[in-house]
Specification:
alpha/beta, Rossmann fold, six-stranded mixed beta sheet, four-stranded antiparallel beta sheet, 25% strand, binds adenosine-5'-diphosphate, nucleotide-binding, Sulfate/thiosulfate import ATP-binding protein CysA 2, ATP binding, sulfate transport
Length: 240
């Protein structure tokens, strides 16, 4: 699923959150939106998701204009900073959730759901947690379960908002490597928001650097780091 963002603008009152943003993301790419706090990263992610509507501009998925479409029609999976797992449900029930709430017509059988949940738990290497409750898992494990849950409905793309933000440094480092490996296996088009350069460098195929609602630079990690395009990027990346 490719994503095309064309001349997107968004204001909150007088505040310009996105200033004529243009961005094309290729199918299967893992893209980092990197920038300081308040630079518009989350707003852009939410507009791609359909959780927020742009004031102007066009969003296309696979070249189809989906600008006005509601979030429920867009087929995206989400992972947020604070893993919103259901506390009263087991890990299996959490992962199955998106499938069990489908309209009857589209809902897989119980056996199919169970098989799928097993496969997803294997994929995130947490099969042994199936019957536990979220409170019995570590933060990193919970975030991997959140990812399995997002993948259960076979999303066309995965959007991650500071997915490692709430975790300590060691767990973050592990999860970064793990997300990279997972993406190499499943190749779902993914966009993740981070303000952490190391995270973007280590995980992403592509880095989009934002500042004050604008895209300052866009390229592979090597391109962005070897050739900081302008004084902002140079400064932000720490005088590489
Ligand atoms: P980032 O993810 O880069 O930190 P955001 O996209 O979250 O930046 O926000 C950009 C700016 O827009 C922030 O300064 C924030 O205060 C403002 N903003 C975001 N959402 C809203 C909203 N719903 N209402 C008012 N202001 C908002």
């Amino acid at each position: 699923m490719s994503i095309s963002i064309e001349q997107v603008n968004k204001r909150f009152g007088n505040f310009v959150a996105l200033d004529n943003v243009n961005l094309a993301i290729k199918t299967g790419e893992l893209t980092a939106l990197l920038g300081p706090s308040g630079s518009g990263k989350t707003t852009l992610l939410r507009i791609i998701a359909g959780l927020e509507q742009a004031d102007s501009g066009i969003i296309r998925f696979n070249n189809e204009d989906i600008t006005g479409q509601h979030v429920s029609e867009r087929g995206v999976g989400f992972v947020f900073q604070h893993y919103a797992l259901f506390k009263h449900m087991t890990v299996s029930e959490n992962v199955a959730y998106g499938l069990t709430v489908k309209p009857k017509k589209f809902r897989p059988s119980k056996a199919e759901i169970a098989k799928k949940v097993n496969n997803l738990l294997e994929l995130v290497q947490l099969g042994w947690t199936a019957d536990r409750y979220p409170s019995q898992l570590s933060g990193g494990q919970r975030q991997r379960i959140a990812l399995a849950r997002a993948l259960a409905v076979e999303p066309k793309m995965l959007l991650l908002d500071e997915p490692f933000g709430a975790l300590d440094a060691k767990v973050r480092a592990e999860l970064r490597r793990w997300l990279r490996r997972l993406h190499d296996e499943i190749h779902v088009t993914s966009v993740f928001v981070t303000h952490d350069q190391e995270e973007a460098l280590e995980v992403a195929d592509r880095i989009v650097v934002m500042n004050k609602g604008r895209i300052e630079q866009d390229g592979t990690p090597e391109q962005v780091y070897d050739n900081p395009a302008n004084p902002f990027v140079y400064e932000f990346l720490g005088n590489v």
